[in-house]
């Protein structure tokens, strides 16, 4: 595990300290969990953005439509 040192605004540190005592968890574990959640949210936002960009890409839409036609033909043959 890597050691990391940082500074926090006093108000945020006090909130962290309060939650740490309330949950009986070390501050570093709370920060670690919060950072994991934050990074996960960033990845989700990037994923959503990529779909929005594909929505405006005519080539991607054509490929998807061609794939759907082929899929419908396959399931109709069964």
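Sequence proposed for the structure above (78 residues):
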């Amino acid at each position: 595990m890597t050691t990391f040192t940082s500074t926090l605004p006093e108000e945020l540190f006090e909130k962290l300290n309060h939650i740490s005592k309330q949950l009986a968890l070390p501050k570093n574990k709370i920060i670690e969990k919060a950072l994991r959640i934050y990074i996960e949210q960033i990845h989700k936002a990037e994923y959503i953005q990529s779909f929005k960009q594909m929505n405006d890409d005519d080539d991607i839409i054509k490929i998807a439509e061609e794939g759907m036609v082929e899929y419908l033909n396959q399931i109709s043959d069964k």
